[in-house]
Design a protein that fits this description.
The complex is a heterodimer of chains A (about 425) and B (about 425). Chain A is mainly alpha-helical. Chain A has 18 helices and no strands. In chain A, helix 16 runs antiparallel to helix 18. Chain B is globular and about 65 Å long. The chains are: A mainly alpha (about 425), B mainly alpha (about 425).
């Protein structure tokens, strides 16, 4: 017989889900009210309900709710895992391959500089100052160094898209550029990370790590070429025969299959889900409306459970180490702002525009935290470093919006002044539509 | 520390979810194609993947997928399936239209009352007197509970299936369609209250009367004060929250209500259903949001639950022709006579009464949920459960064609003398429009 949940376990499971969902969404909604990313509130919910606060003040209730029925929490964890898989899936929708091809060159310079610089700086920091940041010494410094480099170089596509949306510049030239650069960034960052996961897993088992890395790259390549074509054809056919609901299920099934496959070859499932999201989002036969339905349900109901579960894992108060947090924050901001800023200048943008892009690219997001959670689970990093990463993420998100606005207005002011001079000579048909 | 799922468990969990979702939806779609409710295909998926087929043909594979690793991955899946049925009952609650019940109340009440009392009495009597013919093990001291369960199981009509059949027959907005729907609503509603009382009765023998009072009290509360409060809450929420925020609010309320009823000892689905009625009644919860919830739940989560039914029981080993036939016979006889007589009493023609009776005869997901709960609570054993599932499938299959047959017959008989029929239909349409 298959083993079911008992009635008590179901009750406990429902209590956990309700409690976390309600807290996470209320705090998320509050953050949204203040034009912040809801992710911040959702993580905060976990911190409040987890060992940091609730567990500290009400250890007995905490134990009763989260620990007394381990199966119930395991069921919740399964749900949270589904949440992040589906979230990465719909994040893949946002990647616009055509856009990447079009804005390719400029965006590539921004994103490449914004990748290499943080990666090298992060790698070097760990390589030389490993013992300062990590509590326990390590024999193999390459993996944590690579992780750190990757963690610093990833830009959060979804957060940036959100910030640009709030600033009403998603469709402007700068907005497009930032988004495209972030996409490339994200994409390479995930491939890097899946390679790291591979390296450390095979390092443990002594298998051939190289072939697995190849597998990942091969899968990515196949999915983005032949896979894209096949999926497009599948949806073309499905569109004729299936109802809207069935189309949605088809998409989710493909996502799950891809997730299972990548999890099976040793990379985390979210990577496969993300790739499949890119591919499906690219097909014109998967309508906007279906994307919306998936988006609404995932973003509002399931994904918050995952972000709250992050806070549940770690005691943020006990593991708060000011030195580590400050170091991570400093390196992260410096590396990204210099890297992306230089990249923007190189692609021919003005100084103020470069600042706008740099601060935009500097904001980390859910991806950063997923990465950290996986690394923590895989024991690449320890709790204080994880807390540092999360604090860094929150700070970079909070400062991105206001600073981008500041430099954008400065740029516009300077441009207006310059235009005034031009307008004296020529008639008023200067193409500045993107900024009105 | 909180017990998380390990990487292997996550993989196992994902494989289970993918496998079941894909099979269930493919079969569901096939049934959909042949104008049958998808539920049948979804249950079939569980039978194929469960001990009935896969477990018999390839026990190794079955064990590897569903019962290895201490059954933890399956428990995580079961949590998801539970959430699926809770959310499904929640959106089923949306379909209940309290205004409609009040308006068509009298006629519908006669149909639904006769359609309730007759099957209940017949079911009760059958078990009371022929207990040993149906149940394999000798009766406990108490025959009342299985007798009551049986009566209830026979008297419940499946609102969602009927709505679906009427939709397929293009008569959802006709007079008969409306009447059948309203009668089914009342039926459903009373049936669930009855069932929660049974669950109560068998749960704790002492103080069970207080608990029944609690259930009834909670029902009355939600439908009066609760309804008003929910309406006001949604009115306020509509001003301040985004679409996503509203969806979450609804799901949170559903979860809270489910947790509360589960805590009282009634199953969580009852609370979810009641909250669905209350929220569906509020005009501040727009149709669009209902659709988003509906699509996601019906297409992604709910199929997992129905497939999990087939996973539990070996349908071949527990197939007892005698039991199946008895259940099928009594179920159809009781409901057809009851609902038919009720329709005649409310002044319908003979053929119309037949149409209504066969419509009311269709059981559905609710029936199966009830059976599952009873099986879990050990009120019934596996052969009876199998009988109930088969009875459900058969009644659904015969409903559509027979209704169509009698409607056509009725229309042919009134065509010659009565030319005012179209006017009636138009009037009805106006009525429904004004109601909506």
């Amino acid at each position: 017989m298959v083993s079911k949940l008992s009635s008590e376990e179901v009750l406990n499971f429902l209590v956990i889900v309700s409690l976390i969902l309600i807290t996470a969404r209320i705090l998320g909604e509050i953050c949204r009210k203040y034009k912040q990313s809801t992710v911040i509130g959702e993580i905060l919910a976990g911190v409040i309900l987890g060992p940091s606060l609730f567990g500290l003040f009400f250890p007995q209730q905490f134990h009763e709710i989260f620990l007394s029925q381990p199966r119930a929490y395991a069921a919740f964890d399964g749900l949270a895992n589904m949440g992040i898989i589906l979230l990465m899936f719909i994040a893949g929708f946002e990647v616009d391959l055509k856009q990447i091809r079009k804005h390719g060159k400029q965006a590539a310079s921004i994103s490449l500089m914004g990748l290499i610089f943080p990666f090298v700086l992060g790698f070097a920091t760990i390589w030389f100052f490993h013992d300062r940041i990590f509590a326990l010494p390590s024999s193999n410094k390459a993996i944590p160094a690579m992780f750190f480099g990757t963690a610093l170089s990833i830009t959060a596509l979804s957060v940036i898209a959100k910030i640009l949306m709030d600033m009403e510049m998603l469709r402007s030239r700068l907005g497009n550029l930032i988004l495209t650069a972030a996409m490339i960034n994200d994409f390479i960052g995930w491939i890097l990370f899946s390679i790291i996961i591979q390296m450390m897993r095979t390092g443990k088992e002594g298998g051939s790590s190289f072939s697995s890395v190849e597998m990942v790259l091969l899968y990515t390549f196949i999915l983005l070429t032949a896979g894209r074509w096949i999926v497009d054809k599948i949806f073309l056919v499905a569109n004729k025969f299936l109802s809207a609901g069935a189309m949605m299920t088809l998409a989710v099934c493909l996502c799950l299959l891809s997730a299972v496959f990548t999890e099976y070859i040793g990379v985390r499932s979210i990577f496969g889900a993300f790739l499949m999201g890119v591919v499906i989002g690219d097909s014109k036969y998967f309508s906007e409306r279906l994307q919306q339905i998936l988006h609404q349900f995932v973003v509002n109901i399931i994904a918050p459970l995952f972000f709250a579960s992050i806070g549940l894992r770690v005691n943020f108060v006990a593991n708060f180490n000011f030195e580590i947090v400050a170091i991570i924050l400093l390196i992260a901001c410096l590396a990204k702002i210099i890297g992306s800023g230089l990249g923007s200048r190189m692609s021919g943008l003005s100084k103020n525009e470069s600042y706008v892009i740099a601060f935009g690219m500097n904001s980390r997001g859910s991806q950063e935290i997923v990465l950290g959670a996986l690394a923590l689970q895989a024991k690449i990093i320890d709790e204080p470093v994880f807390v540092g990463l999360i604090v860094m993420t929150v700070v970079t998100i909070v400062m991105a919006g206001p600073l981008m606005k500041y430099y954008l207005e400065k740029e516009n002011a300077e441009k207006a002044a310059a235009e005034l001079k031009v307008a004296v000579i020529t008639t008023d048909d200067h193409p500045a539509a993107g900024y009105t | 520390m909180i017990s998380k799922l390990s990487s292997e468990e996550v993989l196992g969990f994902l494989i289970i979810v993918s496998l079941i979702l894909i099979t269930a939806r493919v079969l569901g779609e096939i049934f959909h194609k042949f104008k049958q409710p998808a539920v049948i295909g979804e249950i079939l998926a569980g039978i194929i993947l469960g001990p009935t087929l896969l477990g018999t043909i390839s026990p190794d594979l079955f064990h590897k997928i569903f019962t290895s690793q201490n059954g933890v991955p399956y428990k995580a899946f079961d949590g998801l399936a539970q959430l699926g049925i809770i959310l499904l009952m929640f959106i089923a609650g949306f379909e209940v239209d309290l205004k409609q019940i009040r308006k068509q109340g009298k006629k519908a009440a006669s149909i639904s009352f006769m359609g309730l009392v007759f099957p209940f009495a017949l079911g009760f009597i059958t078990v009371w007197f022929f207990y040993d013919a149906i149940f394999s093990k000798p009766a406990d001291t108490d025959l009342v509970i299985p007798a009551m369960f049986f009566g209830t199981a026979l008297s419940i009509t499946a609102l969602s299936v009927i709505a679906k059949i009427l939709l397929d027959l293009n008569m959802l907005r006709s007079r008969i369609g409306n009447l059948v729907l309203t009668a089914a609503m009342i039926d459903d509603f009373v049936g669930w209250i009855l069932f929660s009382i049974i669950i109560q009765m068998m749960g704790k023998s002492e103080g069970s009367f207080g608990s029944i009072a609690m259930v009834l009290g909670f029902t009355v509360f939600i439908l009066t004060i609760g309804r008003w409060m929910v309406d006001k809450l949604l009115l306020i929420a509509n001003k301040f929250l985004s679409i996503g925020g509203l969806i979450t609010l609804a799901v949170c309320l559903c979860m809270l209500s489910a947790v509360f009823t589960e805590y009282l000892g009634v199953r969580g689905i009852f609370g979810a259903f009641l909250m669905g009625v209350a929220i569906g009644d509020s005009k501040y919860f727009p149709e669009r949001l209902q659709t988003i919830l509906h699509q996601f739940v019906v297409n992604i989560i709910a199929p997992l639950f129905f497939a999990s039914i087939g996973l539990r029981v070996n349908f071949v080993a527990n197939f007892n022709l005698e039991v199946v036939l008895i259940i099928l016979l009594i179920a159809c006889l009781a409901k057809l006579i009851g609902a038919g007589v009720g329709s005649r009493m409310s002044g319908m023609s003979k053929n119309e009464s037949y149409a209504v009776a066969f419509g009311m005869n269709a059981r559905g997901s609710q029936e199966i949920v009830l059976g599952t709960l009873a099986l879990q609570a050990k009120i019934i054993d596996e052969p009876i459960f199998v009988g109930l599932v088969i009875m459900t499938i058969v009644t659904i299959l015969i409903a559509g064609p027979l209704m169509k047959y009698y409607i056509d017959k009725h229309e042919r008989s009134i065509k010659t003398p009565d030319s005012s029929a179209p006017v009636n239909i138009i009037n009805d349409q106006i009525n429904t429009l004004t109601v909506n």
